[in-house]
Amino acid sequence: MRDDSHSLGTHLDELRRRLTWSAIVVVICTVVAFIFHQQILRLLMEPASGFPGVPNQKPIYTDLTEFIGIAMKASLLAGIFTSLPFLLWQLVMFVSPGLNPTEKKYLYILMPVSVIIFLLGAAFGYFVLFPPAVKFLITFGSDVATPMIRIGNYVGLMLSLLFWMGLIFELPIVLFFLSRIGIVRPGFLSRNRKWAIVLSFVLGALITPTLDPINQTLVAIPVLVLYEVGIILSKLGVKIRYRESPDDFE
After folding, report:
1. Nearest one of 180, 170, 171, 168 to 105, comparing CA atoms
2. DSSP one-letter code for 125
3. Which residue pairs from 211-214 have beta carbons closer than 8 angstroms and sit at least 24 positions apart in sequence?
4. 211 pLDDT exceeds 80?
5. Which runs of consecutive H residues, i.e. helices, occur in 50-125?
6. What phi and psi values does residue 54 have, to the nearest 5 degrees?
7. Alpha-carbon gap, residue 108 to 209, rounded angstroms
8. Which partner from 78, 96, 160, 249 sits 20 to 30 angstroms from 85, CA to CA?
9. Full-model pTM
10. 49 vs 114, which has greater pLDDT?
11. Cβ atoms of 224 and 197 closer than 8 Å
C-alpha cells in the first residue's frame, strides 16, 4: 500500500513538473507572438485579399478594447501552436513508461503525423476554403449596404475555421486507431457511406460561414475523401491487429 502511494506521488510530481514546464513554454511563446501580433493579424487577413469593397481596405473595431483583445487571443493561439512540439514531447514522455513497445511505436509515429495532418487541414481552410467564402460574404448585398468588417469577428471566424478544418483532417488517423484497437471495423464504415455523405454536408453547413452551397461542397468533398482514406487505413489497422494478436479473431 505504501509502495502504491509512493508511486502515485511520484507520478503526480512528474505530472506537475511537466505541466509547469509546458505552461512556461506556452507563456514565453505567447509573449514572443504578441510582439509580432501585427504580422500575425496581417497573415490571418491575407485570404481576404485586401477586403475588396470595404472602406480603406481594412477591417474596423468598434469597442475600445476589441483590437487588443483579438491581438491577445491570436497571440495566445499562436503561442500554443508554436509550443505544440514541446507539449507533445512532454505528453509522450509522461505516458510512455506505461506502454508496451508496440504502443510506444504507434505513439511515436502517430503524434508527428497527426500534427502534419492538422497543418494540412488548416492550410486547406486558409488557401482554398476561406478566400471564396470571404469574397461571397463581402460582395453579397454590397449593392444594398456597405460592408464594415469588424476585426474581432473576422479573426475569430478565421481561427475557428482553421481549427475545425485541421481537426476534420484527423479523421483517417482516428479511424485507423479505432480499427487498430478493435472498436471500428472497415465493413461497418463501408456500409454507412450514405450517412457519411449526409454528415459531410452537415459539417460543411456548420463550418462554413456562408449558406453558399459551393463553399459547403468545398468542405464536404474533402471530408468524403478523408472518410474513404479512413476506410483504407482501417483495413490496414485490422490487418496489423490480426498479425500482432491473432487470438482476438478466434
Report:
1. 180
2. I
3. 212/133, 212/136, 214/132
4. no
5. 66-82, 84-95, 101-124
6. -95, 135
7. 36
8. 160
9. 0.83
10. 114
11. yes
